[in-house]
Design a protein that fits this description.
Strand content: 25-35%
Order of helices and strands: EEEEE
Radius of gyration: 14 Å
Strand order of the largest sheet: 1-2-5
């Protein structure tokens, strides 16, 4: 069975926060391809980044058309 309900995507979820694109566009649910899923607390990541040190928290990055199974529509 193929899941094709386009309304149950990250871009329509109340926990999804769009991020600015590399093109410099402002974050937008309609235009942004990537965003942050804020359904759960940020997960600790391990990386060597000059500004963050070795361990830092980060929200999961998702595409606007992803879906995790815990989708909640935006309250209108």
């Amino acid at each position: 069975m193929v899941f094709e309900n386009r309304n149950l995507r990250c871009s329509h979820c109340r926990f999804w926060w769009p991020t600015a694109e590399a093109t410099g566009n402002e974050p937008s649910r309609e235009r942004s391809i990537f965003g942050q899923c804020r359904r759960r607390a940020p997960s600790p990541l391990i990386a060597d980044l000059p500004d963050h040190g070795r361990h830092y928290p980060a929200w999961s990055t998702t595409k606007r058309d992803d879906w995790c199974g815990e989708h909640e529509h935006i309250q209108q």
